[in-house]
Amino acid sequence: MKVKNSRLDAIRLILSTQEIGSQEELLSELEKEGFKLTQATLSRDLHQLRVVKTVGVQGRYRYVLTRPHQYRHAGEQGEVRAVTTPQEVTGFLSIKFSGNIAVIHTKPSYASTLAYHIDNYDFPEIIGTIAGDDTVMMIIAENVTRAAVLRVLRTIIPNI
Amino acid sequence: MKVKNSRLDAIRLILSTQEIGSQEELLSELEKEGFKLTQATLSRDLHQLRVVKTVGVQGRYRYVLTRPHQYRHAGEQGEVRAVTTPQEVTGFLSIKFSGNIAVIHTKPSYASTLAYHIDNYDFPEIIGTIAGDDTVMMIIAENVTRAAVLRVLRTIIPNI
DNA sequence: TTCATAACTGTATATTTATTCTTTGCGAAC
DNA sequence: GTTCGCAAAGAATAAATATACAGTTATGAA
């Protein structure tokens, strides 16, 4: 059970940071991380995580997480997890505000990746995100200006 | 191609109203509508529509529409095509407001379809939606009344 | 018109993914 | 310790899906 849980974490991490187009591809990434399993097990893992195979902008297939918010709750009792290396996140299209909520639109299939990175930085200005396929909703902390939100997001999305 | 376009429309209609778990299943539905095609063509259609195979709440697979972006751009040189045929969207149960957020409850598995239609109309009153299985969250633009939101939604959900 | 090109489709097949069946591992209760 | 119960995983295979190839049809330019 311990192995499986850390494997599920690894899958989430990989899918959030790389463009994976098939289970075989994901399998070899997992092997690099030291996990040993078969495609059958991986298929079951993906089913459990409710990962879906979407079609990206260039028509390429891509496995994406459908529920990035679960990731946060997955790590139990203050487990320290490596934050991903700062990197430019592509796919950003626009951001709009209404009240204490920001709505980001992305290219298709990029929303969960973007939300993952925003979550990962754990900006105090942003208390939570939720992602669909091409939309990320962010709840902004109280007494935080929109300019401040844009400023912190700029570390992830330079051209925001 | 005239045939292909109406077939794509039919696919979107079917996926919006039924739970389809495989291409073969969708194929037979299309045959009932008078379309004659093979699984190969259907696979290509689904790819073009960016339809994805998701995992539903009971663990069953289901094909669902994602976002219409590519479809929109697919129309050549200013061709006017109905975004979606105005149609009643089923599954609606209730709508509640809190601040600039509206929460719509639907019958199980209908949320993404409803959100899809709302997005499709691109109402300026609604800056974004996110759907789970039976819940849609909508962010309402500032200085827009709830009555105005209900009014525009009525084009999709008559009995709202 | 005629030619060139692009779009569309079916057939056959390759590829990919899900599942059945079986075995293994692991913890709890005895 | 042993046995029971059950989650987990592999091997093999079924099922489902994507695609290479070829043929056809539409589209557009000259």
Calculate the terminal CA-CA distance of chain A, rounded to whole Å: 42 Å
Radius of gyration of chain A: 16 Å
Helix content of chain A: 25-40%
Summarize the biggest pleated sheet of chain A: 4 strands, antiparallel
The averaged pLDDT of chain A comes out at 80
Spatial order of the strands in the main sheet of chain A? 3-4-6-5
Oligomer: homodimer
The SS-based structural class of chain A is alpha+beta
Any idea of the CATH topology of the largest domain in chain A? Arc Repressor Mutant, subunit A
CATH superfamily label of the largest domain in chain A: Winged helix-like DNA-binding domain superfamily/Winged helix DNA-binding domain
Instruction: Just name the CATH architecture of the largest domain in chain A.
Output: Orthogonal Bundle
CATH hierarchy, class of the largest domain in chain A: Mainly Alpha
- N-to-C series of helices and strands of chain A: HHHEEHEEHEEH
Provide the low-confidence segments of chain A as ranges: 68-87
Structural topology:
The structure is a homodimer of 160-residue chains.
Chain A: H1 2-17, H2 23-32, H3 39-49, E1 52-55, E2 61-64, H4 69-74, E3 92-98, E4 101-106, H5 111-121, E5 126-131, E6 135-140, H6 146-153
Antiparallel strand pairs in A: 1-2, 3-4, 4-6, 5-6
Chain A binds a DNA duplex (30 and 30 nucleotides) through residues 1, 3-4, 22-24, 37-44, 46-47, 53, 61.
What does it look like?
- The structure is a homodimer of 160-residue chains.
- Chain A is of the alpha+beta class and 160 residues long.
- Chain A folds into two domains: 2-84, Winged helix-like DNA-binding domain superfamily/Winged helix DNA-binding domain (Arc Repressor Mutant, subunit A), CATH 1.10.10.10; 92-153, Gyrase A, domain 2 (2-Layer Sandwich).
- Helices cover 39% and strands 21% of the residues of chain A.
- Chain A has six helices and six strands.
- In chain A, the strands form two sheets. The first copy, chain A, has a four-stranded antiparallel beta sheet, covered by helices on one side. Chain A has a two-stranded antiparallel sheet with strand order 1-2.
- The longest helix of chain A is centred in the N-terminal third of the chain and has 16 residues, at 2-17.
- Chain A is elongated and about 50 Å long.
- Residues 68-87 of chain A have low confidence and may be disordered.
- The interface between A and B is medium-sized, with 25 and 25 residues.
- Chain A binds a DNA duplex (30 and 30 nucleotides) through residues 1, 3-4, 22-24, 37-44, 46-47, 53, 61.
